[in-house]
Amino acid sequence: MRKIIALMLCCLAGVAGAQDWEDQKTFAGAASEITVRVLSSTDTSVFAPLIQSFVSDNPSISVEYLVTGTADVDRRFRADPAEFDVVISSAMDLQLKLANDGFAAVLDTADHPDWAVWRQSLFGFTIEPAAIVINRAAFDGVAVPQTRQALIEALRTRPDVFQGRVGTYDVRRSGLGYLFATQDARASDTYWRLMEILGGLNVRLYCCSGDMINDLGEGRIAVAYNVLGSYAKARIDDRLQVILPSDFQTTMMRTVLVSDLTEKRPAAIAFLQHLLASGAQKDARAPLPLLDPTADATATIGLDPALLTYLDTLKRRNFLKAWEDAVIQ
C-alpha cells in the first residue's frame, strides 16, 4: 500500500512539474543525439524561428525550450544551475549578477562587440526599446502623446476614460519591469510623477508584456506603459499604436549565457553562437530585433556594474517602497 501511495505522489508531482512552466516545447533535430535545455523568459512564438533555424543547421542537437518570467528564470537557475544549459532573459541586471556570481561559463567570442559582452560570460543579442502602446479608440479625435509628460497630461485631462484602464509592470514580480523602472527613474523625475498619476487611476499591474498587449487588443485597457516594443510590433494591428517616447528611450539587450555546470558545453556554446551570428548576418527570419554588431549602442542600457546598483538589498527595498507609495493608493 505504501508503495502504491508513493507511486501516486510521484506521478502527481510529475504532473505538477510538467504544468509549472508558462510554456514548454521541444524542437527536435533531424538526427538528434543530444538535447540542450534552454531556460528563457522569451515567448516561444517569438523565439521559435531562431530555434528552428538552429536545429536545421545542427540536426544532431534538439532544444528543449522552457519559458517562465524573468524573476523566476533567475530563481530557478540559481536553485539548480546544472539543470539548464543555456539561460536567456530580458532582465539584464539579474543576468549580469548571475554572470558576476560565477554561474556563467567564460567563452571565447572575439567577434562580438565589447559593449554587448560582460566578462566573456554574458552576451547581448537583441536591442529592444520599452514602448508606450495605446488602443487607438481611446485617443480618437485627440492628440496621441509622444512623451511621458504628454502622457501625464492626457491621463490627467480625461481621468474618466482611463480610470482602471492603464497597465504597467508589477515591478515587485517582474525582473524586466524592475529593470525598466529603475532605469527610467535614473533618467528623469518624470517617472515618479507618472507613477503617481497611474496610481490615482487604479493602474492594472502585469507580470509581462504579452498579457498587457492582450488586454490592449481586447479593449480592457487603453494604455500600456513600458511594454517591450519588439513584442508589441510583432502583434500590432489596426487597433493598437506603438509609441517610442521622444523625451528619452529605455532600450535593453536580451542576454544569453551558458551554464558553467552544463554537461553539454559544446552544444550549448553552438546554440549561443547561433544567436550571436544571426544578428551579425541580419537574419530576417526572427521577429526579435537582433543585435547588429555595427549598431550605435549609446542609447542602450550598458552591460556594466551600474546595473547591479538597484539589486543591492537596501536600495531595492527603498525603491520598491517608493514605488508602492506612488502606485498602490
Characterization of the model:
- Helix 5 runs parallel beside helix 8 and helix 8 packs across helix 12.
- Helix content is about 40%, strand content about 20%.
- A seven-stranded mixed beta sheet has the order 1-3-2-4-13-6-5, sandwiched between helices. Strands 7, 8, 9, 10, 11 and 12 form a six-stranded mixed beta sheet that branches.
- Mean pLDDT is about 90; it is low at about 1-20.
- It is built from twelve helices and 13 strands.
- With about 325 residues, the chain is an alpha/beta fold.
- The chain has two domains: about 20-125 and about 255-300, Periplasmic binding protein-like II (D-Maltodextrin-Binding Protein, domain 2); about 130-250 and about 315-325, D-Maltodextrin-Binding Protein, domain 2.
- It is globular, with a radius of gyration of 21 Å.
- It starts with a helix and ends with a helix.
Outline of the structure:
The chain is 41% helix and 18% strand. The protein has 329 residues and is of the alpha/beta class. The chain has two domains: 21-127 and 253-298, D-Maltodextrin-Binding Protein, domain 2 (3-Layer(aba) Sandwich); 129-251 and 313-327, D-Maltodextrin-Binding Protein, domain 2.
| Strand neighbour order, sheet with most strands | 1-3-2-4-13-6-5
CATH H level, superfamily name of the largest domain: Periplasmic binding protein-like II
Secondary-structure arrangement, i.e. CATH architecture of the largest domain: 3-Layer(aba) Sandwich
**How many DSSP-defined strands?**
13
Give the CA-CA distance, first to last residue: 54 Å
pLDDT < 50 stretches:
1-19
Number of domains: 2
The proportion of residues forming helix, as a percent range, comes to: 40-55%
Report the biggest beta sheet as strand number plus sense, adding barrel if it closes. 7 strands, mixed
Q: Per CATH, what is the topology of the largest domain?
A: D-Maltodextrin-Binding Protein, domain 2
- Taken from the alpha-carbon principal axes, the silhouette is globular
Kindly report the average pLDDT value: 90
Query: Radius of gyration in whole Å, from Cα?
Result: 21 Å
Derived from helix and strand composition plus strand pairing, the structural class reads alpha/beta
The sequence of SSEs as H and E is HEEHEHEHEEEHHEHHEHEHEEEHH
How much β-strand is present in the residues? 15-25%
Number of helical segments with 4 or more residues: 12
**Name of the CATH class of the largest domain:** Alpha Beta
